[in-house]
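Internal QA ticket QA-208
Title: Verify multi-chain structure generation after dependency bump
Assignee: T.L.

Test input:
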Amino acid sequence: MTVVVGTRVLKALSGVGAVVVCGVSGLLVATDPQPVAAPLRPPVNGASSASAALTIPPSCGGTAGALDPSLLPVARQLQQATTASTRRNILASLSATQRLEVEAYLRSSRRSASGTYAPCDSAGSGVATGQSIAPSVVAAPASTQPLINTYVS
Amino acid sequence: MSGSTGTDIHHVFTAFGGARCEIIACDATEGDVSAVVADAYAFERQLTRFDAGSELSRFNAAAGARVSVSPLLAELLCVCLDAYAFSDGLVNAACLPALVDAGYDRSITELRRGPSTRVQWRPRKDVPALPLVLEVGEGWARVAPGCAIDLGGVGKGWLADCLCERFDNAAINLGGDVRTRGPGPRRSGWAVALCDGRFVTVGDAGVATSGTSGRLWPGGHHLIDPRTAAPARTDITAISVVAQTALHAEILAKGACLIGEGMARSWLEQRGAACHAVVSPATDRAA
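Actual output:
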């Protein structure tokens, strides 16, 4: 069967087709979910939408780095230690580099476990709380002298 | 300089490119304090960008390739990604090439002895978004070709928190990044002097200062604005921020300094900063 279509009809059909294609494309772009944490350029003006809660969202997959297997028992001991002095005693048996590796490993593990960046443990226990502490600013006597300085470095 | 009063130990040392560092630890031993100092030096050796043999330098030199990294470097790279997200991209560890272009191509001690080896500064278009150029996996990491990472103050803030949390009652200052914990030596808090000369008394907290008045050299300073890839042009000379940890305080101080005095207060409040102090050339007043 042969259908004869005039030039005007062909033009109209191609116009309608173009409109349909553009409309569908526009709809797809409009409904495409935007990345929540897109690495956009920092805003110069206007307030940030970040929550007031001082919890840093984790950006990494949340897996702790590979720790030397010989240090894993020490890491487990540290996790179970309940006082700061016990933790220091456990760390004293290690070299400086090993201490840093173990503590970094534990911090990464805490991040994985809590799903949030937990910068401070609870009373030195080494147990992840997933909660952030509030900085405490306290009243001091007028005679107080600064003990320590912060400065640009 | 080192001193001890009963079981309270105050020890001052120099690290991180000649920065003054100190620890005040209550109910601690000389051995505990020595371990803190040793760890600060070990951290610097492993993660300095000024030694081609450091783990960070080797990681940067292998840009483009997936590299095995230690738990320490992996953790710090993740912290950099967190800092980027928390600061709306203002704290960007990928600023290193721009920082080198600005003249900071050697340690600040060497830089102050003589001019930069850079013939001229070539401004870059911008600094790439960190999450687009840095991947961190389990035991490995990769930075994109042409990019490089500088931990900067984020590393010092992280370390101050890490070391201070070994004690129930101590304060650690790593080149201006301060972390305090516990009630202080007289149980009345830790009095920390801020950049405007006032001081704040804190318990468990972090305090850090950022600005354009430190780490200067002829024609430049160390604070790079990732939006311009050039030394920041800000109306803040220095800003001290009190937050929950030294890491938070460091991120907030740097971000606020880049934003400028007009926006700093609301930006900091939205992110939970406890208080802050500003020194600016125009007003020279405290916020």
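Spot checks passed. Chain B is about 35% helix and 25% strand.
Status: verified.
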